[in-house]
C-alpha cells in the first residue's frame, strides 16, 4: 500500500479526535503516504499532525454561506488537486454528502464508508465501493479508529496517538514568570450546552484562590460579554482578545489547566495532553467524552447540569500527581 486518503471534513473537535487514525495507519503500513481532505476552515488543524503528508482543502463552509465566485473557483481548483494522485484506498470517516462527494471525485477503486444505519446522511452511500463493519459499542473517537482499521486490514492497538506539532508562537502567550494559567472555555456552539455563569464564577474564584491565573477566551460578541461577566467576579481573571484558531491552540499549550464544555478547543486541549476537564450538559459523554488517567476527564450525564462540586472534584483529579499516589500506596503497604 502506497497512498491512502482520509476524508473528515469538519469540525474542529471531530477532526482532532480523528487524527489518531493517521498514527494507526502508519504503524500498520510503514512508509505509506496519508493524505487528508478537510474544509478549509479546519485545514490548519490537520497540518499540525506530523503524520499527514498532504492536506487537501476547499472553502466549502464559506461557499455555502456566501456563494462567492472566488470560493467556487477555489473549490474547482481543489478538485484538480484532489485528483492529482490515485489512491489505494479512500476512507470516509465522516459519512455525509460532502465527504462522500469528495471520496467519489478522488481517484480510487476502493472507497470505504459507513453502513447505512451509521451514516450521518444516508444518501452518502452512493460513493462507496465497500463498507465498514457495524459500529462497535464504544465512543465515537475509538469507533473511527476501528472503522479505518477494518477498511485497511489492521487491528487497532494501544491508546490514541495524536502526534501534534503546533507552529511556534511569535511571542509567548503568557509571561514566563506568571502564575500557572487555567483557561475556562465557557462558550459553546449551542445554548443548551452551556454551563451556568454562576457555576463558572464559583470555579474561577476557587482556581484563583489556588494560585491560578484565570483566562477566558471567546469567539462572538455575546461570548465576550459572558466572559466579561465572569471575569468581573473572579479576582485577577483576564478576558483574552479575540484570537485565531492557531493562537488559541498555542495559548492552550501554554496552560496548566483547561476547563470547558464539549467544544473543539477542549478536545484539542486533551489531544495536546493538557490537564483537561470537559463538562457535558446536553451531549453524550459516553459517545463524545475524553479520558486519560489523572489528566483528562469528562463530567455530566448529557441530560442535566453537572454540579459545581463535580467540576471541582474533576479538577482535583486531573491536578493530582499520580507519582505521589503511588508513593502513598507504597508507604501504606510497607
From TrEMBL:
Return the EC number: 2.4.99.23
Among Pfam families, the record links this protein to: Glyco_transf_9
Keywords, sorted A to Z: Cell inner membrane, Cell membrane, Glycosyltransferase, Lipopolysaccharide biosynthesis, Membrane, Transferase
Recorded metabolic or biological pathway in which this protein acts: Bacterial outer membrane biogenesis; LPS core biosynthesis
| Any one GO MF annotation of this record | ADP-heptose-lipopolysaccharide heptosyltransferase activity
Where can this protein be found? Cell inner membrane
What processes does the entry annotate via GO biological process terms? lipopolysaccharide core region biosynthetic process
| Record membrane topology | Peripheral membrane protein
One Gene Ontology term, aspect cellular component: plasma membrane
Q: What family is this protein classified in?
A: Belongs to the glycosyltransferase 9 family.
What is this protein identified as? Answer: Lipopolysaccharide heptosyltransferase 1
Organism (species): Paraburkholderia lacunae
What gene does the UniProt entry assign to this protein? waaC
Amino acid at each position: 500500500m502506497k497512498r491512502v486518503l482520509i476524508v473528515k471534513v469538519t469540525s474542529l473537535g471531530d477532526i482532532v479526535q480523528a487524527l489518531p487514525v493517521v498514527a494507526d495507519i502508519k504503524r500498520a503500513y510503514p512508509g505509506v503516504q496519508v493524505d487528508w481532505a478537510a474544509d478549509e476552515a479546519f485545514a490548519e488543524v490537520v497540518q499540525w499532525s506530523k503524520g499527514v503528508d498532504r492536506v487537501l482543502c476547499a472553502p466549502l463552509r464559506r461557499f455555502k454561506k456566501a456563494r462567492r465566485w472566488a470560493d467556487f473557483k477555489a473549490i474547482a481548483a481543489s478538485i484538480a488537486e484532489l485528483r492529482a494522485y490515485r489512491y489505494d484506498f479512500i476512507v470516509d470517516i465522516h459519512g455525509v454528502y460532502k465527504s462522500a462527494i469528495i471520496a467519489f471525485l478522488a481517484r480510487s477503486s476502493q472507497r470505504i464508508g459507513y453502513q447505512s444505519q451509521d451514516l450521518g446522511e444516508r444518501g452518502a452511500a452512493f460513493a462507496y465501493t465497500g463498507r465498514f463493519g457495524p459500529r462497535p459499542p464504544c465512543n465515537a473517537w475509538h469507533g473511527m479508529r476501528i472503522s479505518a482499521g477494518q477498511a485497511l486490514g489492521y487491528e487497532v492497538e494501544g491508546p490514541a496517538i495524536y502526534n501534534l506539532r503546533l507552529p511556534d508562537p511569535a511571542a509567548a502567550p503568557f509571561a514566563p514568570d506568571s502564575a500557572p494559567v487555567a483557561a475556562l472555555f465557557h462558550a459553546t456552539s449551542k445554548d443548551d450546552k452551556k454551563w451556568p455563569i454562576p457555576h463558572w464564577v464559583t470555579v474561577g474564584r476557587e482556581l484563583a484562590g489556588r494560585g491560578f491565573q484565570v483566562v477566558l477566551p471567546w469567539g462572538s460578541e455575546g461570548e465576550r460579554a459572558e466572559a466579561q461577566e465572569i471575569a468581573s467576579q473572579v479576582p485577577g481573571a483576564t478576558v483574552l482578545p479575540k484570537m485565531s484558531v492557531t493562537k488559541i491552540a498555542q495559548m492552550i499549550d501554554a496552560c496548566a489547566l483547561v476547563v470547558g464544555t464539549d467544544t473543539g478547543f477542549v478536545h484539542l486541549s486533551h489531544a495536546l495532553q493538557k490537564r483537561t476537564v470537559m463538562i457535558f450538559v446536553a451531549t453524550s459523554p459516553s459517545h463524545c467524552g475524553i479520558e486519560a488517567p489523572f489528566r483528562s476527564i469528562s463530567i455530566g450525564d448529557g441530560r442535566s447540569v453537572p454540579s459545581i462540586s463535580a467540576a471541582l472534584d474533576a479538577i482535583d483529579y486531573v491536578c493530582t500527581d499520580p507519582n505521589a499516589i503511588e508513593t502513598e500506596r507504597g508507604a501504606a503497604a510497607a
